[in-house]
Design goal:
The chain is α/β, with parallel strands linked by helices and about 230 residues long. The chain has 6 helices and 10 strands. The chain has helices at about 45-55, 75-85, 105-115, 120-130, 145-160, 175-195; strands spanning about 1-15, 20-30, 35-40, 60-65, 70, 90, 165-170, 195-200, 215-220, 220-225. Strands 6-7-8-3-9-10 form a 6-stranded mixed sheet, with helices on both faces. It has a 4-stranded antiparallel sheet with strand order 2-1-4-5, covered by helices on one side.
């Protein structure tokens, strides 16, 4: 099963009298349980690509198909919101944790939005936080956690609704080398255990060892990395 298919995806913006094209004729498929890395320098179009895949933006041309069901040309806003809540998980460079919520509460939040009963929520959150090594830090706030621990919370949150695809935007950008290796190893293990696809955009070469495929995005074009 392909969780993602991009066919001739392009994105154009008009700024004053200038036309900016961060993405040009992108073709990409990602299969269930695959671990894919897209590398590229700042300004290469990586964030634009993730925003389109994550349904936060729409392509100017081409077709995106998610989970062999949802088509970018006919997707409704309600479907986009449902996809972001249930089918796609997000991991960010800056963690994006809510500072006044504990680790448990941060991970629990998507389940609360879905209306899952409390007992079921707590069990599921405890299980995933234990899996990422934070069962002793459930009630700690982000400011009480190290950068590596905060990213583990972010990963746990991205997986709490059992998504088909996790999008990670520079997930090791704020981590040292040791934490980088630990986080990548953890994501690779979770990818295999849960059969969830990971698509990671980064400029960090330390990530590539774990990838099933490494692609390179530059000047809006996506190619196999050589």
């Amino acid at each position: 099963m392909n969780v993602l298919s991009l066919e001739k995806i392009s994105k154009k913006y008009h700024l004053n009298k200038s036309e900016i094209t961060p993405l040009r004729n992108i073709y990409l498929t990602v299969s269930k349980g695959e671990f894919v890395t897209v590398m590229g320098p700042s300004g290469s179009g990586k964030s634009t690509l993730l925003n389109i895949i994550g349904t936060l933006d729409s392509p100017s041309s081409g077709v995106m198909t998610l989970f062999e069901k949802y088509n970018s040309q006919s997707m409704t806003e309600k479907q986009r919101a449902l996809i972001r809540l249930k089918l796609i998980g997000f991991v960010f460079q800056s963690f994006n944790l809510i500072p006044f919520l504990s680790a448990l509460e941060n991970v629990e939040l998507p389940l609360r939005i879905m209306g899952i009963k409390r007992n079921e929520r707590i069990k599921k959150v405890f299980d995933i936080l234990a899996r990422v090594g934070l069962d002793k830090r459930l009630n700690h706030y982000p400011s009480q956690l190290s950068s590596g621990e905060q990213q583990r919370v972010s990963i746990a949150r991205s997986l709490i609704n059992d998504p088909e695809l996790v999008l990670a935007d520079e997930p090791t950008g704020n981590l040292d080398s040791t934490n980088t290796q630990e986080i990548i190893k953890l994501m690779k293990e979770l990818c295999a255990e849960k059969r969830v696809a990971f698509l990671i955009v980064t400029h960090d070469n330390e990530i590539t060892w774990a990838a099933d495929r490494v692609l390179y995005l530059n000047n809006g074009e996506l190619n196999n990395k050589t």
